[in-house]
Amino acid sequence: MENNIIRVLGKGITAQAIKKKFSNVILYDESDFSSYDKKSSDITVVSPGIPPYNEMLKECKNIQSDYDLFSSVMPYSIWISGTNGKTTTTQMLQHLLEDKGSVYGGNIGVPLCSLDEKKNIWILETSSFTLHYTNKAKPNLYVLLPISEDHISWHGSYDEYIKAKLKPLDSMLEGEIAIIPQAYKDYPSKACKITYKNAQDLCDEFGITKNEVDFKEPFLMDAILAMACKIILFDEKDYKKINSFTIDEHKLEELRDEKNRLWVNDTKGTNIDATISGLGSYKDKKIYLILGGDDKGADLRPLFEFLKDFDLEIFIMGSNYKRLIKLCQEYSFTYFYEGNYIKTLEKIDSKLDLKSVGILSPAASSLDEFTSYAQRGNIFKEFVKNLRLN
């Protein structure tokens, strides 16, 4: 590899890590298009953010992901993917396995090519983008959380998105294990497939006592999957260790203002499945729900079907506001569109009481209006913090 040129399409975090690791790397982005040989046979690593329809990829040969660069030297690897929960599941598993010599990275934290190759286990949060471009590497243990519509504009269709998520099963071998949703039980693979419909299925399969796990949905599923991996590898059930894990901020983060009213920052609810998973815990309350942003072309109707039985009002923001207004009208939901984030929060403040909850769970990306989901959540948290008793 050191004697061959590695071309990397993209100049972001993944690309910079590859350049630091190897001496023979050339980085390209669209500003270099005139000097870029699309037909070259050199190894061409595609950064995950570059979609397959990008002009730089047309006629391109020898396409790989950064995972493929390490296919021959990667230690025992656990890949974790799915639409929602993969970050938390990855972090929980690292929490459980750190004393076994594991490190984690990939789509979160440390780029794959910066991970320590001498460690016993790599735990990799793996996006559908990376899977699309991966053609050599494979996991030894694959954990697939439930799949719902996401990144449709990047993949071109929901079918292509699913295809990317199932791709590791194509190359896994006998003796390797894949934990996957039951909907994909018939997908062909040499790996041993363990399928599930819900958290209870996994508890039954692995002998886990659900009420000894201190998390509620959607984090309960993440915790049980992490525990299942440790059971597979070491035949150990560690309730005390998993229950000591702390959830990241911006995920169903409950806040109380000075009037003791409940606000929930779920800005990481960037697709409809994440929002659906999070709202279930608050069904017994009146909900003032903030929706909207860049929905990436996903079908929003399943979310509105789910919300039909809720007592809620919807507060719309973001670039998909027209679609949301139309659906609110169709489903006869009370809705408000202020055209301004702070005014939206102020509107909720005027309505919220001790029996209701104000929830930011947009079911959409933040990048149409904010630099990140974290900025969107931090503004929400700062607004709640600054509320004063009248």
Task: Explain this structure.
There is one protein chain. The protein has 14 helices and 16 strands. The chain has 390 residues and is α/β, with parallel strands linked by helices. It has three domains: 6-64, no CATH class; 73-243, UDP-N-acetylmuramoyl-L-alanine:D-glutamate ligase; 253-386, Mur ligase, C-terminal domain (Protein-Tyrosine Phosphatase, Chain A, Alpha-Beta Complex). A six-stranded parallel sheet has the order 6-7-5-8-9-10, with helices on one face. Strand 1 (6-9), helix 1 (13-21) and strand 2 (25-28) form a beta-alpha-beta unit. Helix 7 packs parallel to helix 8 (219-234). The longest helix has 16 residues, at 219-234. 43% of the residues are buried. The mean pLDDT is 92.
Key phrases:
alpha/beta; six-stranded parallel β-sheet; UDP-N-acetylmuramoyl-L-alanine:D-glutamate ligase; six-stranded mixed β-sheet; 14 helices; Protein-Tyrosine Phosphatase, Chain A; 390 residues; 3 domains; 18% strand
Short description:
This protein is α/β, with parallel strands linked by helices and 390 residues long. 32% of the residues lie in helices and 18% in strands. It has helices spanning 13-21, 86-97, 128-133, 152-155, 158-166, 168-171, 199-206, 219-234, 239-243, 272-279, 301-307, 321-330, 341-351, 373-386; strands at 6-9, 25-28, 43-46, 63-64, 76-81, 102-106, 121-125, 141-144, 177-181, 192-196, 253-256, 262-265, 286-291, 312-316, 335-337, 356-360.
